[in-house]
Write a structure and sequence with these properties.
Blueprint lengths: L2 H11 L12 E4 L8 E5 L4 H9 L5 E3 L15 H12 L3 E3 L2 H4 L8 H5 L3 E8 L10 E12 L1 H9 L8 E3 L6 E10 L4 H6 L4 E5 L3 H6 L3 E4 L2 H19 L4 E4 L13
Parallel strand pairs: 2-3, 2-11, 3-4, 8-9, 9-10
Antiparallel strand pairs: 1-4, 5-6, 6-8, 7-10
Length: about 260
């Protein structure tokens, strides 16, 4: 498959023109190769993930997070330098679908809404779209098939997410009819979730004062948790759309760990 054709396929799901102005979605590191037969999908382009991808024979790597949001000269021997060294030596391009993937609720970012069977979906923070029939934006709110307690929802999430570092804040809800979520760092959308009628908002990277002032229940599952599964689903999308192309998912672990005291 041609590299340009693969990028076009990625951008059908992750429209580059809809990425945030501050973001650096798109091609991160270019390569001389024009054709690929095997690619790897991961959340973060860390040296570990890149090495694992190359060990699998990947000739193209798709990550969610960019290599860096502040490009700099590789003037020191750090993770940034190591990733560049690995990619350039192997002649393997790196592409990041960051906010370009986040804004498409009909793509893999909508996986939790599908798993929880949410209906009457609305976007929390819409963004302009050149395609009129395409609903783009950050975060989703939707109605549950039937009212549930927060404990019931957490038990359902435990089967698909790592909740070992999750925290719950805000007022205890009764039965939850409508919930909202945003992958990654979405706590800035808490007010929009409340306005959308949600009694529970699920996201990551919640700060102290956000939790203190929350007017609805707020479940912080961590930045890694929802997005790791999102990229696993993106891997499935590419496996279905790229006939003849081998697509590997490279799993990762959250950098946060629970404190275990003996």
């Amino acid at each position: 498959m041609q590299v340009a054709e693969l990028i076009n396929t990625i951008e059908e799901t992750a429209p580059l023109e809809a990425a945030a102005s501050w973001d650096i979605s798109g091609l991160q590191v270019t390569a001389l190769r024009q054709e690929v037969s095997s690619i790897a999908v991961c959340l973060d382009p860390t040296p570990q993930s890149v090495r694992q991808s190359l060990d699998l024979g990947a000739q193209f790597i798709l990550s969610h997070h960019p290599l860096t949001l502040k490009p700099a000269l590789p003037a020191k021997l750090d993770a940034y330098h190591e990733v560049l060294r690995l990619l350039i030596r192997a002649d393997v391009p790196l592409y990041a679908a960051h906010t370009s993937l986040d804004v498409n609720p009909r793509g893999p970012v909508g996986w939790l809404a599908e798993d929880l069977k949410l209906v009457n979906l609305t976007v929390l923070e819409p963004v302009p779209s050149k395609i009129e029939e395409r609903m783009l934006g950050y975060g989703l709110a939707g109605d549950l098939p039937q009212p549930q307690t927060v404990e019931h929802i957490i038990r359902a999430l435990e089967s698909i997410l790592d909740l070992s570092t999750a925290t719950l804040s805000g007022p205890p809800p009764g039965k939850i009819h409508r919930l909202a979520y945003c992958t990654g760092s979405g706590s800035s959308l808490l007010a929009a979730a409340h306005k959308a009628g949600a009694q529970l908002f699920i996201t990551g990277d919640v700060k102290y004062h956000t939790a203190l002032d929350a007017e609805i229940s707020l479940l912080d599952v961590g930045h890694h948790s929802l997005e790791e599964e999102m990229m696993r689903r993106m891997c499935h999308v590419l496996q279905q759309r790229c006939n003849g192309l081998t697509v590997h998912f490279v799993p990762s672990a959250s950098p946060f760990r629970t404190v275990a005291l003996s």
